[in-house]
Design goal:
6-stranded mixed sheet
Length: 189
């Protein structure tokens, strides 16, 4: 039993160092506004090129929030962080970061991106007026996977926000937006 406690303590210590590095070092290495805009535009273009429904939604959405690269790490406790750009009418409408913490059966490290397609002004206004928008509370959000994307049509597109994951790399089971917090920030020039 004593050996199990030491092993758990070691795992928790390693995870604390990993999460500290993830959340504290990332802002220090944050991209410039211009670089983040370019990476976000490129990620959105690749997503739309590889997913016909994302392409279709991009023409109907009032705004699109793109996080080109998020790092997620976990060992029982986990965290994720990334920076992104809100595009409205093809122009930058703000810079945001996304963070999440989790607890449970998880182990690994992963990089991925995601885009949120705001389909109406009400959802966008709610997002912009929230001081730290938390996904999974309101308005309604639908995570679109490859299988579900093929069944979306103009009659089924009735949600406020659609989320698409892309560029998943690394080893970690499961992707979720529940409990993810998005906050506006000012990047370096």
């Amino acid at each position: 039993m004593n050996k199990m406690k030491k092993n758990l303590l070691l795992q928790c210590s390693l995870l604390a160092v990993l999460i500290t590095a993830l959340f504290c070092a990332a802002p220090a290495n944050a991209m410039s506004a211009h670089r983040l805009e370019i990476k976000s535009q490129e990620a959105l273009q690749r997503l739309c090129k590889n997913n016909a429904k994302a392409e279709e939604l991009s023409h109907k959405a009032v705004a699109i929030l793109v996080f080109p690269e998020i790092v997620k790490a976990g060992l029982i406790f986990g965290g994720q962080r990334g920076d992104g750009v809100l595009f409205r009418g093809g122009n930058v409408d703000g810079f945001y970061n996304t963070t999440a913490a989790s607890y449970g059966l998880q182990v690994g490290i992963q990089k991925f991106g995601y885009a949120l397609f705001f389909m109406n002004e009400k959802a966008l206004a709610y997002f912009k007026s929230s001081d730290g928008f938390e996904l999974g509370t309101a308005p309604s959000i639908t995570i679109v996977d490859v299988g579900a994307a093929s069944s979306l049509s103009t009659t089924t597109l009735q949600k406020d926000i659609y989320a698409f994951f892309f560029h998943q790399r690394g080893l970690m089971a499961g992707l979720s937006l529940q409990g993810t917090k998005i906050t506006k920030f000012t990047p370096s020039k």
